[in-house]
Amino acid sequence: MSVGQSTAAELVHNIFDLQRALRAVTAASMKHSELGPAHTGVLFFIAEGGPLRASALAARLGIGASALSRQLADLEQYGFVVRTADPLDGRACLLSLSPQGRACLAETYERRAETLRGILSDWTESEAEAASLSVQHLTIALRSTGPHPDGPPHATPTGASHAASDSTGNDGRHHLDPASEIVKEDH
Fold this sequence. Notes:
The chain is mainly alpha-helical. Helix content is 53%, strand content 10%. It has six helices and four strands.
């Protein structure tokens, strides 16, 4: 059975409302960090897909090369991103996170998780897990609709337990087994 038009329209409204709420929370927490959401997003995608070329990163982020160039210049100045020669093409460079970049990203996610934990203080663990699974399911559906510059969309089996094969990723967050991991971005 497919989803009805009014339900789909309500979901679109709720997704945009969630995006606005996330931006407001993120902006409020920026006083603790020099990096904005765009810079954090760049760090995240480099951590998840790196080392990778700037062109692949720009395509994955859905931004132009000039916008990415400005963000990368800032991140390199902070010492969070490093460039190395691409072993397959000496004319190209690969981007990866420095140890400082990984630490910054981990700290950002830890701070955001603590902020969200406070916001959800009246939620039960079951409610938070159900919301997380719903967001993951929606993310998989959205990613399955088009081409992906980094390969096929990631998938998580329905009802996958976070306790089974839980590990800490290079961004400091806890992930499921990499074979079933969902890439989570913060926009």
